[in-house]
Write the structure tokens for this entry.
Amino acid sequence: MITRFKKVFVLAPHTDDGELGAGGTIARLIEHGADVYYFAFSTAEESVPKGHPSNILEIEVKNATKKLGIKEENVIIYHYKVRKLNYARQEILEDLIQHKRNILPDLVLMPSLHDIHQDHSTIAQEGLRAFKNCTILGYELIWNNLTFNTTSFIKLEERHIKCKSDALKEYKSQEGRTYMGQEFIYALATTRGVQIGTKYAESFEVVRWIIQ
């Protein structure tokens, strides 16, 4: 089934969200020949920890997505202000529609519609509006999900989780955050795997599923 997805959009409100929510799945999709496009809408320059250059997250997302196997030219970075994406809803919607017209994805991975972070919620809502004719899966970021419906799972192998973990290690400016650590990444993948009787998995909410 996963091999049917040839053009995949990953919508990341901030750098690292796409890897955190779907890093293993991205690695597996690329392994099966999918062309994955990664859109980061904010590099959160206002929130960069002291001691780092203001553009550090832009550098890190390029390194991280490279580790996942995403082509450099498929990583599109915007500089909308962190925690203020809701003020740029129309611009973001127009960005998404333009990319859809140019590429026409058959799968979109985006934050859950239940994500309570204001930026994540904005990207999820505008993604839902923009991609009315695409299959959409919402990825989980459990620290932001008041609730999350585990309505679909992607089976993964250890190499996919290692790839995800290695990608997230590129975010050296974010070290110390529990959810960035290897232990957490493997624990969540193991938990989702237990739910479907496999060793590792990532879970997604089915926002829209188109059967062809």
The chain has one domain: 2-208.
